[in-house]
Amino acid sequence: MREPLPPDMFDELCPSGLTPIRFGDKWAPLVIACLEHGPRRFSELRVPLRRVTPKGLTKSLRGLERDGLVRRNSHPGTPPRVEYELTALGRSMLEPMKAVCAWVGEHWEELLDAREAYDDRLREAR
């Protein structure tokens, strides 16, 4: 039995929003992180990814599947059950993502300061 995904896995202050490198799309790295420890159903993914609309999550999952990073497995039954899991290629993304997250952690304040300075310049120009 797998541990459930924590609902606060990606809170609003999650540094993923500051990451200047995007893997696929805005939500793709978060989906990959959710699948790190094994297959998950759509409803399980929705718990920590509650800020993503169902349409947005579906789009991310399809894009990851198209790129060969995620496999969609349908299990017969009533109702049918669908799970998503990382492929070997998808698993190969985990280390680079951890490196990017570590970089963001080291440069968090600089990133926030740069964004604030940029926004201030835009306000002043108006």
From TrEMBL:
PROSITE patterns: HTH_HXLR. It comes from the Bacteria. Residues 14-112 form the HTH hxlR-type domain. Gene3D superfamilies: Winged helix-like DNA-binding domain superfamily/Winged helix DNA-binding domain (1.10.10.10). Keywords: DNA-binding, Transcription, Transcription regulation. The keyword DNA-binding applies. InterPro entries: HTH_HxlR (IPR002577), WH-like_DNA-bd_sf (IPR036388), WH_DNA-bd_sf (IPR036390). PANTHER family: TRANSCRIPTIONAL REGULATOR, MARR FAMILY, TRANSCRIPTIONAL REGULATORY PROTEIN. This is Helix-turn-helix domain-containing protein. It comes from Amycolatopsis tucumanensis.
